[in-house]
Structure formats: C-alpha cells, structure tokens
What does this fold into?
Amino acid sequence: MDVELVEKRLRLANYDQERFSDEVEFTFMFTNTSSRKIRAVTGNAVVSDIFGREIVAISILQTEGLLANAQAVWEGVWDFNQFMDGHTQVAYGAIEDMIFTFDVKSIVFADGVGSVTKNLVKS
It folds into this structure.
C-alpha cells in the first residue's frame, strides 16, 4: 500500500455555501501494491514539520475499495480547530514546509482477511 499526498487546499469560510469556518481539503492517491483486492483502509495522515517533528495526525477511512495493483483518489475535508497551533500550522502553512506520512492501522481485503501494519507508507 502506497499513499501519496496529491493536494492540500484551504477552503475559506463562505456563509452563502453554509461553510462557517475555514476548512482544509486533502487529496490522496492510494495505490494497492498487492495482488489482492482491498475493501477498506484506515489510518492516520501524519503531518510533520521539515525536521520530522509531528504536528498533527488526521484520521482517514478509505472505504471505496482498491482493485489489485490499482490506484484510487481519496478526497476529504478536515474541519480544523483554529485555536490549536498545530492545526493552524497545517491549514495555513506551505506544503513544502511539511512532511506527510500515512500510518496504516488496518487493511481489510475483499476476501475478508485483514492485516494490521504500522508506519508503512511515506509520501
């Protein structure tokens, strides 16, 4: 399993669209490097500074499935807390000043057999 950050985009509050606070939209590319179909993946997108110090871990659940040796795009919105320094650092900071890794917690294969790993993927 490979996971790569494709894009981090700040969506500013827009009352006309009923978005009452700033949000961060993430796009990740999930790549199934196994020969088995994946039903779901859960884990944390871990954001660190350029020195490798963890800023925040964002829980992600990908349930759209992945065919064997295939890719799928996952998009999600993170409703961050504007009063937490780490959250604002990720939301408003430059992507080139951050390191993104994906810490896989669990993979459920389509045949029902799961495997649990840690610190499997870096992007």
